[in-house]
Amino acid sequence: MPVVDDSAARPGPVSVLDPGPSIELPAPTTTGPAGVPTGFPQTPEGALAQLAAIDQVAFQSGSLEGAREVIRAWALPGGPTTTSWSVVHALAVLFERTGVSGGGSARLAIVLTPLMGLIKGTVGADFVVPCVDFELDVTLDQTARGAVADCQRMVWSGDRWLIGPGDEPAQPPSVWPDTDLAIAVGYRDLSRG
Fold this sequence. Notes:
193 residues, alpha+beta, two-stranded antiparallel ribbon, 4 helices
């Protein structure tokens, strides 16, 4: 995946380029462990939707413990842990920059919205590497906006997608959704089914 400047994550002009057909995300059918929506089908789009739901609940918990609860429930043995997961590290950096403790703050509001995505690769029907490009809105006295992105190895296990074992894949560029650069990276718009 290409390397981009950190400034690419800041709001930018919307592109007039055509990113191609949107990726239709299936709707969840139930709520799983740690309050994460689930019940997505055994398809690449289902894996992408599950990753988006995992990341949303972890970030929007507004605390390191909330994110740790999510990864404990949604990673297979050998996968990311409560201390190694990139989302836990991203939240720790966010809390450091905002002066909020790892336990969160009643004054802090985090909204993570999946807007673009791509399927980096698949192996059969049980292994998908989806990537999601999110808009992140953080409010603490005022609102700051930026983009964050995540790729994970998603493995079909029993009746749901889980984050698979091994090191996390190379992280995709965090680029402001629907910009020329986001389209050049290969992201496509997400739509809800």
